[in-house]
Write a structure and sequence with these properties.
- This protein is α+β, with helices and mostly antiparallel strands.
- The chain folds into 2 domains: 3-133, dinb family like domain (Four Helix Bundle (Hemerythrin (Met), subunit A), Up-down Bundle), CATH 1.20.120; 143-244, SCP2 sterol-binding domain (Nonspecific Lipid-transfer Protein, Chain A, 2-Layer Sandwich), CATH 3.30.1050.10.
- It is 48% helix and 13% strand.
- It contains 8 helices and 7 strands, in the order αααββααββββααβα.
- The strands form 2 sheets. It has a 5-stranded mixed beta sheet. Strands 1-2 form a two-stranded antiparallel sheet.
- The radius of gyration is 18 Å and the shape is globular.
- InterPro entries: DinB/YfiT-like, Maleyloyr_isom, MDMPI_C-term_domain, MDMPI_metal-binding.
- Residues 6-130 form the Mycothiol-dependent maleylpyruvate isomerase metal-binding domain.
């Protein structure tokens, strides 16, 4: 899929979701935050990633060091600031070269890694805004499925034997109900050193089945399986342990 186009689209949709909202409204899925704080977090995060790439930063960049990290006070100016942040990520990757290694919180990765990361930061935080404002939320199955895969990549990269969300020998199967071919199924395996996953069909110790967007929101704990209409099978403790050990 085209991560660049999707990043621009999801950022724009986030802006439209909050444009006419009460920006002082709380965001229950991000405890302690208001819509204003959620907006600033996403917009500054885009610029944070762009600055890491353009400045060849080799450490965790302090958000206070992000250039132009605060949006204008007027709504239209703030929305344009948000959109410009997404474009800044894309321009930074183009300037550095998509395959150029850059700093990430997982270690060096190709610069284009940040486009995908910021895309799915936007998809999830758009859901946060929609849930807070009782606004509609739809996500194309292909984008949602890619979000599931990207999230599993993050989980697998961080997991160790001591922090693994799955015990060795335990498997979790995810199945999107849309016709997505191999990219709509995931087999996740617990190993002594952490977790690994691949696309494919199989019988897991536990399984979850639902629309790709509902699977994504359930995995990142924005909705419960019951709220999202995701059906669970097998050992419920496996699913509960996975969620408790994989905070977003």
């Amino acid at each position: 899929m085209d991560h660049t186009a999707a990043l621009l689209e999801q950022t724009e949709l986030f802006g439209e979701t909050v444009r006419d909202a009460d920006w002082s409204a709380p965001v229950p899925t991000c405890p302690g935050w208001t819509v204003t704080q959620l907006f600033r977090h996403l917009g500054r995060g885009h610029r944070w990633a762009a600055q890491i790439i353009t400045d060849r930063v080799d450490r965790m960049l302090d958000p206070r060091e992000v250039r132009d990290g605060k949006p204008p006070s007027d709504i239209e100016g703030a929305i344009e600031w948000l959109h410009a942040g997404a474009r800044a990520v894309i321009d930074a990757v183009a300037g550095a070269g998509p395959e150029t290694p850059v700093w990430t919180f997982l270690g060096p990765r190709p610069a284009a890694w940040w486009i995908r990361r910021r895309l799915h930061e936007a998809t999830v935080h758009r859901a946060d805004a929609a849930l807070a404002l009782n606004a509609p939320y739809e996500l194309e199955p292909e984008v949602a499925a890619d979000g599931v895969s990207e999230w599993l990549d993050l989980v697998a990269a961080r997991a160790t034997g001591e922090t693994s969300p799955l015990e060795p020998g335990v498997t979790l199967h995810l199945h999107a109900t849309e016709d997505l071919g191999p990219t709509g199924e995931w087999m996740i395996h617990g190993d002594p050193d952490g977790v690994r996953w691949e696309h494919g069909h199989g019988k897991g110790t536990a399984a979850a089945r639902g629309r790709a967007s509902d699977l994504l929101l359930t995995l990142v704990r924005r909705r419960t399986a019951a709220e999202a209409g995701v059906r669970l099978f097998g050992e419920e403790k496996v699913w509960a342990d996975w969620l408790s050990r994989t905070p977003y």
